[in-house]
Amino acid sequence: MTDSGRTSLSQREHEALETERGNLPARREDDMRRYLPGVEPERQLNDWGRSERIEGLMDRTLYDFYYRYWFRCEVDGIENIPATGGALLVSNHSGALPPDAAMIGKSIKEEHPHPRPLNITVEHFFKGYPGFSMLIPKIGCVAAHPANVHRLLYDEEQLVLVFPEGRKGTEKLYKDRYKLRRFGRGGFVEAAMRARAPIVPVCVVGAEEAQPIFAHIKPLQKLTGLIYAPLTPTFPHFGMAGMLTYLPAKFRIRFLEPIHFDDEGMHEDRALVQSVAHEVRARIQENLFEMVRERKSVWFG
Amino acid sequence: MGSKRILITGVSKYWGHRLARQMEAFEEIETIIGVDSSDPAGELERTEYVKVGTQHALLKRIVDAARIDTVIDTRLVVDSSTSSSRNAHENNVIGTMNILAACSGPDTTVRKVVLKSSAHYYGCEQDDPAFFTEGMSRPHAPRTGIERDIVDAEASLREFAEKNPNATVTILRFANVLGPDVRTAHTQLFALPAIPMILGFDPRYQFVHEDDVVHALEHVAQENLPGVYNVAGDGVLALSEVIGLLGRTPAPILPPWGTGLAVNAARRIGVKVPPEMVNQLRFGRGVDNRKLKAAGFNYRYTSREAVQKLAEHMRLHPILKGVREPYRYEREVEEFLRWSPSVQGNAEAEDTQSAPPPPPDPPRPKPKPRPRRPIAPVEQYDDLESEEVISLLGSMEATDLQALLAYERGNRARASVTGAIEGVLARRGSLI
After folding, report:
1. Which of A93, A180, B325, B388 has its CA 20 to 30 Å from the CA of residue B347?
2. Three-state SS for B176?
3. CB-hemisphere CA count at 13 Å for B256?
4. How large is the average pLDDT for residues B145-173?
5. Which residue among B282, B296, B302 places its CB closest to the CB of A40?
6. Nearest to residue B122, comparing CAs of B236, B220, B228, B260?
7. So what's the pLDDT on residue B352?
8. Structural domain range at position A198
9. What is the DSSP letter of B33?
10. d(Cα B205, Cα B179) in Å, to the nearest integer?
11. At what angle do helices B56-65 and B386-393 cross, to 10 degrees?
12. How far apart are the C-alpha atoms of A101 and A121, rounded to whole Å?
């Protein structure tokens, strides 16, 4: 854990607070950032529900084991993640219970000269499902609501990871591996432009083989109320524990060059949003094919 | 533009009373009038209490007579465990409409209307943002009666604001309130030895301390802040964190499916979980409080500190129970102390510290509804329906009644009106 792990406050100094204090109410939106709640050092959780204790525990045990020994992650281009300020990481997504998000977060902690916490956006479904609803925010996941992404990127200047493929990426079958699905409706580009935060495309190779999905079991999905019930090498015959069991594929994570948006009001240009979304998707797809082409073995890299 | 002449509704309830006491301390405020349909539950010093419900004709007369410039409406029911849903609806929707009716009109003196609303306006749903800002509307239609009432009440306030562009209309949406004195469904829940939770859910909660509620209302009365403001302490806590701070035991006994049935069963054994709280126990809610901070308001307590204050109170409460005498409003005593010429000691002190002596309003600086000369009792008197005239008669004095009778005979000569005036005069005469 880094020192800024729990804060929901941007690290900027509250400069010039006194000089502008007055009775005049009208202020520009920029100024709202200085009114973010301060850090309460006694607390274990931050305002998003992220728990230092639970996240630290997961980080030291499960994530560490998977990162070092199971997936033997290799990271490329970590310098593309800015050391300060908000940035939106956009990645491909795979695996029934996807290990890629946790491994991207862990790689930033391990490899980056300024380790920073990563906020992972997840579907609203998780907030409504018992158990997940309790655990998911504690390990740094937030619902993929545009307002949440904006607050994290712009106001709190944090790192946010999105999977524009969403559920379509994780539920795709083994035969479709490494073929990117549609990138939503470009909402992630809009969010980055509005917050004027850079987009860092991320490619993950190995997650597709770590938990391949051979088929979907519709009746089980109906019974459990989950978003899908896949047939994987370990699920459902080993129960819920099978969900956390992965094959030891070799992971490679590549962070691509960031795309910057410095002008105000770019998000209103729909055509620009769509073309940037296509561009990001094309770059990730191209790099994925290149990484798979160079990979000699699924298990040993 | 600070407020000088204030009318506070719901003065007999907790919030109206707290606010009235708070405003009494400001010398620049000339008049504070508190209205409610029941007697005050606590002592009032400068505030004049008028026992009146939300009948707009009566309220309008009070507002006009006292030249009220600010109406602060603290009367909204935001906790369905405190009254029946029919009463809550009557109070929240119809009551708000009536109060606004009393504030409007072409020659109204009201320049500011403040509504104490609730963050229940936003509801609690699965696909909510983590922090609601004031501009966000709720993503789904209201699910519970209280939420529907709050949305309706705010809608009528917004309509009022559109029709009265000169008036400052402020809506404050308060998060769940905690504190040593206030009683809400949540303080009752937190007083249980084991706090029921929905299995598998740990909702996010934001609180505001009761003192901050009063200060926020006072702040918007003093400043000119039109629009909607969220009021909630800094920091959003998980329910498990709250339970830890209170030193209680979490009891995840409510099932995630069929929660409603379990809540009904819990109600039988005395654990009150109102419907709007069920959603909150499942999904929780956070609001963005920065707009009010940017408007110059300083919170004294964070959410966490509000919970800690409640915890301190709960540890002390069993020892202090029954120490404080309950207050009873005695109308005769209050009136004697306020208006009697025999009262000397306090009256002088009051005169020096509070600019206007208490009795300026009730005697009769009433310009409008009282006819002085037979020629023109009221402007547009002839437009008034006979029923409206008759409803006003009871409060008029004998000389005015005679003047009105003369005027009515000379002009429209409505038999029902003249008959009613004669009837009132006859009854007065028989009493004398």
Report:
1. B325
2. strand
3. 16
4. 93
5. B302
6. B228
7. 40
8. 51-291
9. E
10. 15
11. 70
12. 9
Q: Chain A to chain B, count of Cβ pairs less than 8 Å apart?
A: 95
DSSP B166: T
Contact of B60 with chain A, judged by CB distance below 8 Å, is answered with no
Q: Which residues of A touch B291 (CB under 8 A)?
A: 32
Closest chain B residue to the Cα of A22, Cα to Cα? B296
Per-window interface: A 242-301 vs B, CB < 8 A:
none
Tokens of A49: 């529900």
* Cβ B3 vs Cβ B112: under 8 Å: yes
As a dihedral over the C-alpha atoms of residue B41, residue B360, residue B113, residue B20, rounded to 10 degrees, the angle is -30
Residues of chain B with CATH 3.40.50.720: 5-183+203-239+283-302
- The count of domains in chain A is 1
Asked whether residue A109 is domain-assigned, the answer is yes
Q: State how far residue A176 is from chain B, nearest Cα, in angstroms.
A: 30
Distance CA B221, CA B112 (A): 8
CB spacing of B296 vs A25 below 8 angstroms: yes
Phi and psi at B142, nearest 5°, equal: -60, 140
Task: Give me the residue from A133, A138, A147 closest to B129, CB to CB.
Answer: A147
Closest residue to B294, CB basis, from A32, A37, A47:
A32
Mean pLDDT of A166-185: 87
Does the CB of B367 have a partner CB in chain A at under 8 Å? no
Interface confidence (ipTM) of the complex: 0.85
Say whether residue A41 is in contact with chain B using an 8 A CB cutoff: no
Asked if the structure places residue A7 within a domain, the reply is: no
List CB contacts (< 8 A) between A25 and chain B. 223-225, 294-296
Question: Cα dihedral sign for B379, B385, B386, B387?
Answer: negative
Q: CB A43 to CB B302 under 8 A?
A: no
| Residues B236, A43: C-beta atoms closer than 8 Å | no
Is residue B298 less than 8 Å (CB to CB) from chain A?
no
Contacts B200 to A, Cβ<8 Å:
129-134
Query: Half-sphere exposure (CA, 13 Å, Cβ side) for A187?
Result: 16
- CB of B227 less than 8 A from some CB of A: no
Task: Tell me the torsion sign for CA atoms B74, B80, B83, B85.
Answer: positive
Q: Is the pLDDT of residue A273 over 60?
A: yes
- Tell me whether residues A32 and B234 touch, CB distance under 8 A: no
Q: Does residue A43 belong to any structural domain of this protein?
A: no
A128–B contact, CB cutoff 8 A = yes
Let me know if residue A2 belongs to a domain. Answer: no
DSSP B178: E
CATH number for the domain harbouring residue A244: 3.40.1130.10
The token duo for B195 is 């706090």
* CB < 8 Å to A148, chain B: 129-131
Measured distance CA(B279)–CA(B125) in Å, rounded: 7
Which among A133, A138, A151 is the nearest to B201, CB-wise?
A133
Whether A25 has a pLDDT exceeding 60, the answer reads: no
Amino acid at A192: A
Superfamily of domain B5-183+203-239+283-302: NAD(P)-binding Rossmann-like Domain (3.40.50.720)
**Residue A84 forms contact with B (CB below 8 Å):** no
Angle between helices B386-393 and B415-431 (to 10 degrees): 10
Alpha carbons B96 and B276: distance in angstroms, whole number: 21
Contacts of the segment B312-321: beta carbons below 8 A, 24+ positions apart: B312/B180, B313/B179, B313/B180, B314/B190, B314/B191, B314/B246
**Is residue A134 less than 8 Å (CB to CB) from chain B?**
yes
pLDDT for position B420: 78
For residues B64-82, average pLDDT: 91
Q: Is 70 exceeded by the pLDDT of residue B174?
A: yes
Mean pLDDT of A113-128: 92
